[in-house]
Amino acid sequence: MILLLLGCVAAAVLVSAVGWYVMRLRNAGEPPGTFRRDFSGKNARAIDSIRLGYNSFYIAGAAGGKIYLANTTAPLLQWRVDTSFRDTARVQLGRSSRAWPLDAKQVVSASSAYLLNRAGNFLIRASVQEDTAVRFLRVGRLVADFGPVGSMQDLVIRTLDSVGGYTLARYSEGAGLERPPEPNLEKRVDGRFCVDGMLSFDRETQRIVYAYYYRNEFLVMDAMLHVLMRARTIDNRVYEPIKTGSYGRVRTLLNQPVMVNRHLFTGDTAVFIHSKARSESESGSQFVSYDVIDRYHLLTGAYEYSFRIPNPARRKLRSVCFHRGCLYMIYDKQLFRYAFR
Asked: Shortest CA distance to 41 belongs to which of 272, 280, 276?
């Protein structure tokens, strides 16, 4: 019996290892699509870096010449780095005695920092200028993701609709949660895994961009969540549909879908997507040695060009943002600043 149990465990480990290897090959773009990237535009060059010491940091936002870092293991702490990388400060948001889970997420807008407690479905808002000024915001519905939008105290929230699928809604402290009259995320399978993705708000154009993880598409909305455009990325491959199942009330994936888009950010009237799809002009060995960012025009959705971020050590890109003409990226335990040329 013990040998049988050990055999089952070993088989499970082997299947997991094989699955991870297959997923890595697929995420590297195997096989390639029949599209070609244009690398003749601007290139990004690393000009500065800061060692963070831990791989649990992520970029919570950028405003006023500062990059705000948060830490998954210390949700109430915040590290502020000026764009010259010469001045840093660590602060605590409020003096809350509430227990914050490690999956709490922090987002910084122009003058406020928001922290989501997914377990309790509420947020706290702290002033960036007065770190102890905290306000608790009860959302009342499950919140899967969120980001700042419009005014300094409005948020766009990914939450559940009336039939249990994800939708984007607007939240303000005065009006509460307001859902759009028409669905904005396009359901194809279950309405949850099939629409999973990333949010980004471009303050200059007042546009909200949402890119799907498992679909070569993104959509652009106005600040009231009216869909202005549904656009496709240059990746023209057809992917295996997501298959889902349920165990009681828990929904789960029955297959390992290919992650098409990994990171999203906006700026300079553009949509930037960190793509995991390899083009026909890139070899497999080349593609795993750098991260590729595709740039699209934010107002038209047209593809403009791509650029590479060298990554020969195959470090994990954990977080990225665009602020005042520069690109900020966290690779493992290090924050980098890139300039375009």
From this structure: 272
Most confident stretch, 13-22, 67-76, 238-247? 67-76
The pair of three-digit structure tokens given for residue 6, joined into one six-digit string: 């050990």
> What distances in angstroms separate CA 22 from CA 31, 199, 257, 275, one per listed residue?
12, 28, 11, 18
Mean pLDDT of the chain: 83
For residues 262 and 176, what is the distance between their CA atoms, to the nearest angstrom? 31
The answer to whether 130 and 173 are in contact (CB under 8 A) is no
Name 209's bridge partners.
200, 220
Q: Are 117 and 97 in contact (CB under 8 A)?
A: no
Q: What does the pLDDT read at residue 120?
A: 60
What's the rounded Cα separation, in Å, for the pair 144 and 118? 7
At 212, is the secondary structure helix, strand, or coil? strand
Alpha helices in the chain (DSSP H): 2-27, 284-287
Spatial contact of 71 and 56, defined as CB atoms under 8 Å apart: yes
Residue 207 backbone phi and psi in degrees, to 5: -115, 145
Amino acid code (one letter) for 110: A
What single string gives the DSSP state of each residue in 57-101?
EEEEEEETTEEEEEETTSTTEEEEEETTSS-EEEEE-----S---
